Amino acid sequence: MWFCVKCPNSEAIRSGITWEEARQDESLWFSRKVPWATLEGRFKQRLGTANLTRCLSDKLCTLIAERFVYPPICPQTTFALTPMQLTPY
């Protein structure tokens, strides 16, 4: 899996560019510069910090869901379980 992002240059960093400004500049850069602007849609999904963040967030959610242990559900289940009751899980 690959992604391509554009970070602010040294001058922009020294001038105090904000995170939001950097992301806006990155988006404009990818939409205007060849060859990035002329890529097919499936490749454009791999450009920019927003797409990278979205992909990583989805992956993290999947990993958490796969590893999360759910207690068994029964009519007597309450949300006030003690640490001793949670030990088997």
Keyword list:
single chain; 89 residues; mainly alpha; 5 helices; elongated
Describe the protein's architecture and organization:
The protein has five helices and no strands. It has a domain at about 1-55. The model has no long low-confidence stretch (mean pLDDT about 85). The protein has about 90 residues and is an all-alpha fold. The protein has helices at about 10-15, 20-30, 40-45, 50-65, 85. The chain starts with 9 loop residues before the first helix and ends with a helix.
What are the secondary-structure elements, in order, as H or E?
HHHHH
Strand percentage lies at under 5%
Oligomer: single chain
Structural class: mainly alpha
- Contiguous runs where pLDDT drops below 50 for at least 5 residues: none
Instruction: Note the gap between the termini.
Output: 34 Å
Give Rg in angstroms: 22 Å
Number of strands: 0
- Report on the biggest sheet: none
Mean pLDDT: 87
In helices, the fraction of residues equals 40-55%
Number of alpha- plus pi-helical segments? 5
**What is the molecular shape?**
elongated
Give a brief description:
With 89 residues, the chain is mainly alpha-helical. It has a domain of 53 residues. The chain is 52% helix and 0% strand.
What's the layout of helices and strands?
Elements: H1 10-14, H2 19-32, H3 41-44, H4 49-67, H5 83-86
